[in-house]
Amino acid sequence: MDATFPILLLCLLAIFFAWRYYRLRKGVRALADAITASADDGALPLSAPAARGDLAPLRQAVVDTLTEASFARDSERKQREFQEGLLNEIKDAIFILDRNREIRFLNRAAQLFFPADQPYRARAFLDVCRDHRVYDTLTLAEKIGAKVSDNITLRVHCDGKKGFREVSFVVEAEPLFFGGDEENSGSWILMKDVSRQLETEQIRRDFVANASHELRTPLSIINGYLETLDESDIAADGEFSRRAIRTMRKHGDRIARIVEDMLTISKLESAADLLKREPFDLVDSAESMIDQLMPLVEQHRATVTVKKDPGEDWPLIGDRFYWDQIFFNLIENAIKENPDPGLKITVRFRSKNGRYVISVADNGIGIPSADVPLVFQRFYRVRKDHAQTTVKGTGLGLSIVKRAVEAHHGDIVVKSQPGVKTVFTISVPPPPAMRDADQPVDTERGGNPPDLRN
């Protein structure tokens, strides 16, 4: 009896400790599985089986630690996504490289400039941007430890098209330290497309140079006559004085016309959104300008005809002043470029595919094919022998026409057959009431535009 009791007690203790060991091991395994699951999918082990017993404090400490780590991880992920979203909205190409010059991040603009079939991450930067000049800029920045910039012209892929185009970039590169750790260093590269700015600056310089040249000639003529008239013996010649005054007035009018056209273009470019938006009739605008030009039409023995559907109005909401300029310049240009008698000009109004289509056609000598793409440039004139008239145009009329049409959300094209005809065609959206009509407007297919007079 005495020997049995200690043995029984030892057996009970062994069973108890074995059970406790089993429970402890099971709880540790469950907690480990829960931690592993948390690491895989971000879920916290709040309902782990080890929530009871002696492992409860350990489990709570683990949960608290994982919760804090999860919050920090989510916060970091959201911050990274926010930063990447901001960088993707930037139109300049941005690359972030590691110390091996492999790509860690690039924004959407960089992907558009340098498309690739393979993933970008962990690829060598030189495999994506294969231009040694950009690479040399990066090397110099890393060598001196400061930001370096350079102007570089690259051939890049066209957006959504096959082929290449030349783009002028301002390339900036600078070393970058992730988290302030020099061992974990890298660099960033920014490539800003400045092609449009350079083109605009070149246009501005050309405009100033051409304007100065155009104004210098009539001013020189006027000053020359004034110097001549200032001589006492010449001033007594009445015939010469009258001829000089007529010439000076002619060139003074030319200067005024150049200045007026330059101001018109300036207003169109700087305040296109501030144009008047008032209803008016396009045909009425064209006919008014024809009446205004009738002395010039009769002088050149030309004819101007307006063709449209009878009894129909052609309403538009826009700036009547600039549409008067459009019709005036197109008709006057046709007359001045074709001084021989018998010129026929036709102004036609029709509707096609829900848009107004206005054409100004003449049967004159036409425009050489090499000059057609250039006629809308400022101060450009088609050089013809017949065009050596006593008073040249300003060279701004067609530029005003194009800019005025574009300011009304339209477009204009020109087609010409030398010796046969020249046609300027304008396409512009009609008022909303016309676009929202039940039936589409297409007079070429037998339909008529709806009558808005009722």
Key traits:
454 residues, alpha+beta, Beta-Lactamase, Helix Hairpins, 4 domains, five-stranded antiparallel β-sheet, five-stranded mixed β-sheet, 19% strand, elongated, disordered C terminus
What is the strand and helix layout of this fold?
Layout: H1 4-41, H2 56-89, E1 93-98, E2 103-106, H3 108-113, H4 125-128, H5 132-144, E3 148-157, E4 164-177, E5 185-193, H6 195-229, H7 232-235, H8 238-270, E6 278-281, H9 282-292, H10 294-299, E7 303-307, E8 315-318, H11 320-337, E9 344-352, E10 355-362, H12 397-407, E11 411-417, E12 421-428, H13 432-435
Parallel strand pairs: 7-9
Antiparallel strand pairs: 1-2, 1-5, 3-4, 4-5, 6-8, 9-10, 10-12, 11-12
What is this entry, summarized?
This protein has helices spanning 4-41, 56-89, 108-113, 125-128, 132-144, 195-229, 232-235, 238-270, 282-292, 294-299, 320-337, 397-407, 432-435, and strands at 93-98, 103-106, 148-157, 164-177, 185-193, 278-281, 303-307, 315-318, 344-352, 355-362, 411-417, 421-428. With 454 residues, it is α+β, with helices and mostly antiparallel strands.
